[in-house]
Design brief:
- Helix content is about 70%, strand content about 0%.
- It is an all-alpha fold and about 290 residues long.
- It folds into two domains: about 55 residues, no CATH class; about 220 residues, MetI-like fold.
- α9 crosses α10 and α11 packs antiparallel against α14.
- The longest helix has about 40 residues.
Length: about 290
């Protein structure tokens, strides 16, 4: 069907904006490539000979070095790489469970329950977001040292059970405040107390915020280095970030090839975890207090 003169002006705006749209997409693709270049360099360095990693500027290896991955799977200092993976899983899963339990209960109390000083306490909780971790490090370390817990996983997991991550409390509070209060009133009429209301009404509806908390807690804990370096002093309890340091410290010649190979292995669980729960992450952020 031939377009009439009256239809022609309607197509002009789309034609006029097409070059701008193409330029915008090209710029975004270029930005993504720049951001992904460190990952590409890590992947290529993991299959380079150790002598070539720092001496060659080309990201393409002259020959493949699969022995880097064999050395990574063999472990370090007689400790299997699976031990390091297991330690990281214990710490990460413990932190996830701790945050899910403590932050959801604290958020429910701040969002629904009425008690004295609720407002000031919630404000004080939010202020801890701006408090650097290094400020509380020495007092916290002193406490765990007096309890003879340094060198175990307890200092890395126990604070999560005490609702110390104010960001996730705020996330859940904003989500719960968006739920109709009529649900609580209906549960109260049916004879539910605060605990039963939380368990049977609020908790099932809190799933998007819980999934968001799970994803962020797992990724942040898995990649954490500083706090694990402070509290773990036995190689048998080392997590993957600490195990990577052993490739540099164990000999006078740094084993960069196996170290980069283990780095690739260490980021694979995080990438798979994020890809598996990406849809829930977007849903949780879109339906929580982060939207406004």
């Amino acid at each position: 069907m031939t377009a009439t003169p009256a239809d022609a002006p309607a197509t002009r705006p789309a034609t006029r904006h097409r070059p701008a749209a193409l330029a915008w997409h090209a710029g975004m693709i270029l930005l993504v490539l720049l951001l992904l270049y460190p990952v590409f360099w890590l992947l290529t360095a993991s299959v380079k000979p150790t002598s070539e990693i720092l001496s060659s500027l080309s990201p393409v290896p002259s020959r493949l070095a699969p022995e880097n991955y064999r050395a990574a799977f063999d472990g370090i200092a007689g400790i299997s790489v699976w031990r390091f993976f297991g330690n990281s899983l214990i710490v990460s899963i413990g932190a996830v469970v701790g945050n899910l339990i403590s932050c959801s209960l604290a958020a429910y109390a701040f969002a629904r329950l009425r008690f004295r000083l609720r407002g000031p306490l919630f404000a004080l909780t939010l202020l801890t977001i701006m408090l650097p971790y290094h400020v509380v490090l020495i007092p916290q370390y002193t406490i765990f040292q007096k309890l003879d817990l340094v060198g175990s996983f307890v200092p890395l997991i126990l604070p999560k059970l005490l609702a110390t991550d104010a960001f996730f409390i705020f996330l859940m509070v904003q989500f719960i405040r968006g739920l109709p209060r009529e649900l609580d009133e209906a549960a109260e009429i049916d004879g539910c107390g605060p605990i039963a209301t939380f368990r049977h009404v609020i908790l099932p509806l809190l799933k998007p915020a819980l999934v968001t908390t799970t994803i962020f807690t797992f990724i942040w804990t898995w990649n954490d280095f500083f706090s694990q370096l402070v509290y773990l002093n036995d190689p048998d309890t080392y997590t993957l970030p600490l195990a990577l340091r052993l490739f540099i410290d164990q000999t006078s010649e740094s084993a960069f090839g196996p170290m980069f190979a283990m780095s690739v292995l260490s980021i694979l669980p995080v990438i798979c975890f994020f890809l598996a729960f990406q849809r829930y992450l977007v849903e949780g952020i879109a339906t929580s207090g982060l939207k406004g």
